[in-house]
Amino acid sequence: MTGGAAGYAAHAVALCAGAAVWLVAMREPGARRARVLFVDGPAEPWRAWRSWPFLLKARELAVERREWWCVPVAVLLTVLGASVLPLIAGAVAVPLVRRWMRGRARRRQHERAAESVAALCAAVVGELRAGQEPGQALSAGLRECAAGGEPRVRGGPGGGAWLGDAEAAVLAAARFGGDVPGALRQAAAGPGLGGLSGMAACWQVAVDGGAGLVAGLDRLETALRADRRRREELRAQLAGAWSTVVVLALLPVAGLGLGAALGADPLRVLLHTPGGLFCLAVGGSLEAAGLFWACRIVRGGEAP
């Protein structure tokens, strides 16, 4: 094996060793804390160092700021390739990865909010069948969903309100006989809360017609849960397409690894020769265009 390949192997071993240490250090922090709190006697001495505050803070930052993992990778490639280009690419990748992760978080938030609306319908139907008045049933349903750990749409854990800024208006209308349909339509403008507009329509029909609220909310809950099942089935069917996209994205990395294993020193060729720089620019552009197009195709399949 040549000197360049041996250097790559040494760096790879060091990287794997660091990852192994990190996984061992951060394994099961919740179980450890539970043992300390609810089991007599201190934790094992050889595991006590896991509770060091700076390690817990580092793990928290690593989870919340995962886009910054691009920087260590870029630094490693900069050291291996003796070029500043990977560092520039890593700096550019940080905001792009952050935007992608925030988009994923928004989509998950929308899905959790839609599930919360279905849970609210079920709770209100249960209260109505138990003999509660509609306003009292709605107030109890909102309290039940909030107490049951339903995700908060704004403000994060422990802050904000389940329906955003419109929750106070919905509660006031439910308790004091106000415009409940209008308050629900206002709350339906929140992310993922479009099902509340259907709830407002059911409420309006029940107010005008004098009956049918239980049946309407029951059908609305069924429709919302059926829509959720359709989304899950579609996501399962598209899992193979996403796997293909990931494999295609990792093929260039596999090619670099094979080149390094054969002693070709691909990083030096790509980063320090005119032909390599040209190939890097063209290949990077084609890779980005291909990933964008493939993701757009899959996203089009996920769209309702």
UniProtKB/TrEMBL annotation:
Entry keyword Transcription regulation: no
Keyword Transmembrane: yes
Keywords: Membrane, Transmembrane, Transmembrane helix
Name of the molecule in the record: Type II secretion protein F
Transmembrane stretches, start-end: 7-25, 73-97, 238-263, 275-295
Coiled-coil annotated residue ranges, if any: none
Gene Ontology annotations for the cellular component aspect, listed alphabetically: plasma membrane
